[in-house]
Design a protein that fits this description.
With 389 residues, the chain is an alpha+beta fold. It has twelve helices and 17 strands. It has helices at residues 2-16, 32-43, 89-103, 144-148, 159-164, 172-181, 196-210, 214-226, 237-240, 285-296, 309-315, 373-386, and strands spanning 20-22, 29-31, 49-56, 59-70, 75-76, 83-84, 123-128, 133-137, 247-249, 255-257, 282-283, 300-301, 304-305, 334-335, 340-344, 348-353, 358-363. The protein starts with a helix and ends with a helix.
């Protein structure tokens, strides 16, 4: 009986030119134009697979699963595929800090030494060439505003993490010592420099003022209230069975799986690995969309307020100065006239179109930082044409 129903639906879709197909795996309507546009990148072996989500504040409008989560095992993409969302974690950190602002526990413009006195002595690079580097003691104050907008002067990674490139190798308290040992690149507020270390220091402040760990705070105040049961810093062995690893091309041009170079393995190790506030979370499409639905709905999810509308407006408004060299950044969020969102290494990005009332999510897993911009561009263009009026 079910087969007959699906056959009739397919017949009428083709006959009437509606352009929609329904996936029996996901149960959500899939936009055929998006599927067609992205399928070519899989067919051309540019990408192993892609998942896209289009959602409104209370429902998923379109969910497309194209290709495989693993090109070697040929396991298909599905809505519960686990991904490393990397720097999208910064949006969670920014949200957590704004919760503290609402409670009066922190002030965005207070010097961070108020909360972390061990950072009273920092140094800034004054000049540097191949043979010599000159440093001087920092005399101006760094604030939470600087940390959350990447204008603190802190480098991308602290010195300890720079040695290995692993962002999950030290705890947040230990990262403070790494901060002391790593000179700033410029005075706070002078320039923009994307900095995981700055976000980590913000998370360390969260730990200091709340008395709980960063990951515990996220769990209790964001993940649990939103029912995000598959979002974690430490994927279990069971979750990893549905994990989409990064892919790269071998010498023969074939896609093969690789490790996430920024993280230590095994990914399930809770003793060796530490939560990275700038990029450590793993999630699934069905889980991750809940967080952005809460943002789109003005801080409310399933009738429960998580964050105030005022805080969301602040996070989603440009906080960096309007001058050359300054990216448009809010508090832990990339902001544009049409949306607030964030991308992540290996090819993920989510956008909340607050005025249009839609969420667009693009999720793939590629090796390193060089995501396939053509595939992403095709999705943003189509998604905006179809949904963002």
């Amino acid at each position: 009986m079910k087969r007959n129903v699906w056959a009739l639906l397919l017949f009428f879709s083709v006959s009437w030119g509606i352009g929609y197909a329904r996936s029996e795996k996901t149960g959500y309507p899939e936009e055929s134009k998006i599927t067609t546009a992205l399928q070519k990148y899989v067919d051309q072996k540019e990408l192993a697979g892609i998942i896209t989500v289009v959602a409104q504040k209370d429902k998923i409008v379109s969910l497309n699963c194209v290709g495989c989560q693993n090109a070697e095992t040929h396991k298909k993409m599905n809505p519960n595929t686990l991904f490393w969302i990397a720097s999208q974690t910064k949006t969670f950190t920014g949200t957590a800090i704004m919760m503290l602002v609402e409670k009066g526990l922190v002030d965005l413009d207070e010097p961070i030494t108020t909360y972390l006195p061990e950072l009273k002595t920092l140094y800034v690079t004054e000049s540097q060439d191949e043979n010599k580097k000159t440093e001087r003691k920092l005399t101006s104050a760094i604030t939470l505003r600087h940390l959350l907008t990447h204008t603190s002067g802190m480098q991308f990674l602290g010195g300890i993490q720079q040695q290995t490139g692993h962002i999950d190798m030290i705890s947040l308290p230990v990262s403070l010592y790494s901060t002391v040992l790593t000179p700033l690149q410029f005075n706070p507020g002078e320039k923009y420099l994307y900095s995981n270390q700055g976000i980590n220091v913000a998370a360390a402040i969260l730990e200091r003022v709340t008395g709980v760990t960063y990951e515990q705070f996220l769990q209790e105040h964001i993940l649990d209230p939103l029912g995000m049961k598959s979002t974690t810093f430490y994927p279990t062995e069971e979750q990893l069975k549905n994990f989409a690893p990064p892919h790269k091309k071998d010498a023969n041009g074939q896609l093969v799986t690789s490790h996430i170079s920024f993280l230590q393995y095994p990914l399930s190790d809770t003793k060796k690995r530490f939560p990275e506030a700038g990029g450590g979370l793993f999630s699934t499409p069905l889980d991750l969309v809940k967080f952005y639905q809460m943002i789109l709905n003005g801080g409310v999810y399933n009738g429960k307020r998580i964050l105030s509308e005022k805080s969301i407006r602040e996070m989603g408004s440009r906080q960096t100065p309007q001058r050359e060299g300054m990216s448009s950044y809010g508090f832990g969020w990339v902001v544009a006239p049409e949306y607030m969102g964030h991308s992540g290494a290996c090819g993920t990005e989510s956008r909340v179109y607050t005025k249009g009332g839609y969420i667009l999510m693009y999720i793939a897993q590629e090796d390193g930082l060089k995501a396939n911009k053509d595939a992403q561009s095709d999705f943003w263009k189509l998604g905006e044409e179809l949904y963002i009026k």
